[in-house]
Specification:
By secondary structure, the chain is an alpha+beta fold. Helix content is 45%, strand content 19%. This is Transcriptional regulator, AraC family.
């Protein structure tokens, strides 16, 4: 039996199955995509309260309304002028949005900008580290719009000018880097050391939760004692390390249950549970549904 991999929202599957290249609201190639109106796209791909994994990184910013979503377990509420830089392989889940919500987006394969690897924000993006949430000033928002539509106009030239698009995307990322560094210089937006450690912990949970569910493993990665890590995480988020780990495993489970043809026992094995029964009990305890019930919901 051929088993499909879990569905990733990638340029390839969007190009092949969901989106017609170069239509009114979107333009997609194998290594770059741009969407001028997320809400006007006609796609059966996205549903609220359902997690998806993004293969490529994304530059996303809201232009109207408001959306509440989770990215790798962290919940955000984004409104006009809020920009998100999403690392590759992030898991997103949209919880709710207002009727007037709208956003613009770019999807960029790592190889598309691999020659840029020195800048701090580019390390966030290329290095697959934590995601970036950045409120923009009115001036910064207007400049981001100008970059976006310059790229939008360029991709619609008769011949796809890849090098020009690469340079414009790079310029946009460098501008985001400048905005971020300026924001960090502002004491009001500077994270405490505990908050920075917590975000590093969440990034590690996202990377390793399917195979490592021991507090000591994450404490060792962060050069902390397990007791201190638990205290830090609890003080920062009001949840324990194990509660975060369990939530991460549930999200991974949901992605596999909804977007693959893996059987429950195969999912249990993939997530390193000792047996399918243990996985089913864990999933029901966390969600109130059995894995089969969730698949059919």
């Amino acid at each position: 039996m051929v088993v499909n991999e879990p569905l990733e929202i990638s340029l390839k599957n969007v190009l092949d199955y969901f989106i017609v290249q170069n239509n009114e609201y979107r333009f997609v190639t194998k290594d770059f995509g741009i969407v001028s109106s997320f809400m006007r796209m006609t796609s059966e791909l996205f549903f609220i309260h359902q997690p998806y994994k993004l293969k490529e990184g994304r530059i996303v910013y809201a232009v109207s309304g408001q959306v509440t979503l989770s990215i790798n377990l962290i919940q955000y509420t984004a409104k006009k002028g809020d920009l998100l830089l999403l690392a590759p392989n992030s898991i997103i889940e949209i919880h709710e949005f207002t009727t007037d919500f709208e956003m613009r987006m770019m999807a960029i394969q790592n190889d598309f900008i691999q020659f840029l690897n020195k800048d701090e924000v580019l390390e966030y993006y290329i290095g697959r580290r934590e995601n970036l949430f950045l409120p923009l000033s009115e001036k910064d928002y207007e400049m981001t719009e100008r970059y976006f539509f310059l790229i939008w106009d360029t991709v619609h030239e008769e011949v796809f000018r890849k090098e020009v698009v690469q340079s414009l995307v790079s310029a946009l990322l460098f501008n985001i880097s400048y905005i971020r560094k300026r924001s960090k210089a502002n004491n009001q937006t500077r994270h405490t050391r505990q908050e920075e450690t917590f975000h590093r912990f969440i990034a590690l949970v996202h990377e390793y939760c399917t195979r490592e569910r021991n507090v000591a493993f994450y404490a060792d990665k962060l050069c902390l004692s397990p007791r201190y890590l638990n205290t830090l995480v609890k003080n920062t988020s009001r949840q324990t390390v194990m509660e975060w780990l369990n939530q991460a495993v549930v999200i991974e489970s949901k992605v596999l249950l909804k977007h693959s043809d893996l059987l429950v026992y195969q999912i249990a094995d993939k997530l390193n549970f000792p047996n399918p029964s243990f996985f089913c009990k864990f999933f029901k305890k966390m969600t109130g549904m059995t894995p089969m019930e969730y698949q059919k919901s």
